[in-house]
Amino acid sequence: MPAQLHIERVDEVDENNSNRVQFAPLTQVLDSRARRRLRRSHLSQEVNSFEDHQKKDKKLFLELRRQLREQDEK
Question: Which domain of life is it from (predicted)?
Fold first, then answer.
């Protein structure tokens, strides 16, 4: 079964009363099977950049939590 993107309806409606569709970011959709498929399709560079982005986000999150703890201690 192919990977499916989840479509979420946006509350705002255009002037022409047409519906707008908002897609989930790719980083939220990729699971381990999707990453494996990308590697088999020789798209490992994209997978590497995705994983690097995840690592940077995690480091940033931990740094922000550390800063909050320091502020709370003062």
Answer: Eukaryota
The angle subtended at Cα 50 by Cα 24 and Cα 41, nearest 5°, is 95
- Going residue by residue through the chain, which has 74 residues, state the pLDDT in tens, using 9 for 90 and above: 555 555 555 555 556 656 666 666 666 677 888 878 877 887 777 778 888 898 999 999 999 999 999 999 88
Residues 6+ apart with CB under 8 A from 12: 20
DSSP β-bridge partners for residue 7: 23
What pTM was estimated for this model as a whole? 0.44
Every domain of the chain and the residues it spans:
7-73
Q: 10, 20 in Cβ contact below 8 A?
A: yes
Residues 6+ apart with CB under 8 A from 39: 47
